[in-house]
Amino acid sequence: MIAFATLWLGLVTGNVPVELLVGAEVARVEVRLDGEICSTLSEPPWSASCELGEELAPHELVALAFDAEERSVGEARQWLNLPREAAELEVAIARKVGPPPRLVARLAWAGPGGAAPTAVRATLDGEALAISTDSTGFTLPAPAAGAAKLLRVEAAFPGGATAVRELAVGGDVAEQITQELTGVPVEAIGRDAPRALSDGERELPIVAIEQGEADLVAVLDPSALAGLDELARTGGRQRLARGGIGIGVGASPGSRAVSVDERAHVPLPEGARLRLVWPIAASRRQGELRYDLFATSPERTAADGSLLAQLRLAAMLPPSSESPRLADAVALAALTAAQPGRRRAVLLVVGGGTTDASLHDAARVRRFLDRLRVPLVVWSTTAATANAAATWGEVETVTSVPRLEAAASRLDALLGRQRIAWVEGRHLPQRLVPADRRLRMATSEAEAPRDGEPEGRARRGDDRGATTGNANDIATAADVEAVGDNSSRGAGDALADDAAPGDVDVETGVASGGELTDFAGAPGDAPAAPPQLPAGLPLRPLPPFSLATDVRDERLLGIVGAAAAALPVDFEARFGLRVVPQGTLVLFARTADFRSWLAAEGGGDLAVDGFARHGVAALAVEHQKSEEVTALMVHELSHLLVRVATGRQLPAWLEEGLPEELAIGRRDGRGHTVPGSLRIRTSTRGVGGPARVRSAYERTIVGPAAALIALVRGPRPPLSELLAMPWETFTAASGRPDRYAAAAFFVRFLLDGEDRRRREPFRAFLANVAAGGPADAKALEAALGVELPRLQSRFDAWLRRTAQTLR
Question: pTM above the 0.90 mark?
Answer without folding.
Answer: no
